[in-house]
Amino acid sequence: MNGGAADAPRLVAAQLDILKSQRRQLDTAIALLEHARRKLREGEDIGAGALCEIIKSGDRAVWEERWKKVIDRYYSPKQQAEWRERKLKAVEAAGFDQDAYTKAWKDLTARIEAAMPLSPRCDEAQAFVAEWNKLLEPFLCVATPAMQDAANGMWSRIEEWEHEVDTPVSASALKFIAQASAAGRANVRS
User: Fold this and answer.
1) How many domains does the chain contain in total?
2) Cβ neighbour number for residue 180 with a 10 Å cutoff
3) Phi-psi region for residue 135, left (φ > 0), alpha (ψ -120 to 50) or beta?
4) What global pTM score does this model have?
């Protein structure tokens, strides 16, 4: 049996887990909308809380669909299934919170952009690099070298797709971190 065939049950199981999760999300969104429609038909106010839940549910689905289109360009279906499987294990093992993780990237990106222009060699820039690398740790703990290469390829071409999705990292912050990382390595060598 070749390696691909040996991986097939694991990859199929990972894909099923993702699809079941998506189905649960869709079922929740449909239930919210049906409930709102019943209330509105009966002349009742659905309330701000319910309306916010409906909007958040729809926004999440749109966000995921847009990201899927970008990811499909850079990752094969097999790589995507492997990534989902590894991500599920990380979530289960560490209680990983994707929303908090995304917020941390957005916060760091905003602080980097607010600090620019900034010398890539200065202490503040190197502190940003350290924080950036710390945020990468959950990814690096589960990603294979091939997954890391695919991610590097995708992010190195951010200017091609950043307008399509709400990315937590900007092209300018990414470019600055690359420059500051190189400057930090140069400082260590000299």
Assistant:
1) 2
2) 24
3) alpha
4) 0.64
The pLDDT assigned to 93 comes to 61
Distance CA 143, CA 137 (A): 10
Contact 22, 37 (CB under 8 A): no
Residue 142 burial class via C-beta count within 10 angstroms: exposed 0-12, middle 13-18, buried 19 and up: buried
Q: Do residues 182 and 120 lie in contact, with contact meaning Cβ atoms separated by under 8 Å?
A: yes
Q: How many CA atoms lie within 13 A of 63 on its CB side?
A: 12
- Domain residues for the domain of 171 are 97-190
Question: Do 11 and 81 touch, CB atoms closer than 8 A?
Answer: yes
Residue 80 lies in a domain: no
- Whole-number Å distance between alpha carbons of 172 and 112: 9
Q: pLDDT digits over 23-71, tens only?
A: 777 777 777 778 778 877 888 877 777 666 666 666 666 777 788 888 8
- Alpha-carbon gap, residue 125 to 56, rounded angstroms: 35
